[in-house]
Target: Oxidoreductase
Amino acid sequence: MTTQHRIVVIGAGYAGLTAARALARKTRDASITVVDGRGEFIQRVRLHQAAAGQDVKRLDLRKSLGRKGIEFIQARITAVDPAEKIIALDGEWTLHYDTLVYALGSQADRTSVPGVAEHARFVATVEDVAELSGQIVVVGAGATGIELAAELAQAQPNSDITLLGANEPGGWLSAKAHQAIHARLTALGVRIVSGAKVIEVRADSIKLDDGTLIPAATTVWTTGFTVPDLARRAGLAVDADGRIRTDDTLRSISHPDIYAVGDAALMLGPNDRPLRMACATAIPSAQYAAKAIAARARGKNVAPMKSPYVAQCISLGRGNAVLQLVNADDSPKKTVLTGRVGGWAKELIVLGTAWTVGLY
Ligand SMILES: Cc1cc2nc3c(=O)[nH]c(=O)nc-3n(C[C@H](O)[C@H](O)[C@H](O)COP(=O)(O)OP(=O)(O)OC[C@H]3O[C@@H](n4cnc5c(N)ncnc54)[C@H](O)[C@@H]3O)c2cc1C
Model:
């Protein structure tokens, strides 16, 4: 019989890998196992580059984690039983845990508007991504939509790219950042349609709520992410979207031996505002959770997680980006880096995230 404390991390995205690697450094007398359906990690924050035909580096999870003394199991997690503390892999109840780190991330929202699942393309996960070209309408003028439209327009100047959304691209940032995004997209030849509400996606067009039909040979849907329903099925306390409700130390409020990190977790920041689904949240939340698990194992008290936010950074094709400094509540400060300097800053940040998960 083993006396080792068994820590199981489910999901090997930014959050799961960061947590596992930090736990390997910080804990003694604990076994760490990571489970993911994929055998390779691919940087999600570069998937718009993959859609524009660029190569994106991959990481062999078994080799990379093995070097840190972490066991890796490639399997689909099909259920969690928090009462018995056991996980079903590919339908078999096989993996026991003492502490579970839940990091199953998110996927594209395919169901909120009719026709999306049947006719749209996505860039939310590696399985979604295929190279895009031709006449394309990117729906959703949030960070992912902006990054994708700019990347496609730069890589394929002969493509016809429209960015369509309810709001102005970058309208939530400072005026300077907003203007820089607008100017760069326009210079790249992206047509911007704002104030548009899509009510249906068809094979060759998009229907708006005022009845307008917008021709679209290819529609790419980037309006937001949803999370797997595994946590809800397991009986964990979740919000309306299925994200695990956490306390201020990232433990499930219903099952405190489960920590939830990254996109799959509902983490509250300043003024109880949910932290956004972002790599900029996933990595610091996972670092924090690892520290909290290690501290509790040594019988120490754990201080609440602080807001991780310093900046929002949006790429605008290769070699160009907007880096907006933000307050702890994620609201924009005055300082903004744009153009080539913004591009360098963004590339350094993305390289930093890759380094954190072991890609370099
Ligand atoms: C194109 C694009 C650009 C982006 N750019 C930025 C950016 O510039 N800055 C930023 O902060 N954020 C960005 N994001 C968001 C960022 O990628 C996510 O917020 C981040 O990946 C969340 O990390 P995570 O570890 O929580 O989840 P994920 O990265 O989604 O990882 C979850 C892991 O869980 C595994 N998994 C899920 N379900 C199962 C299951 N049932 N069984 C086994 N394994 C499972 C998956 O295979 C995956 O490896 C971008 C996203 C996209 C799509």
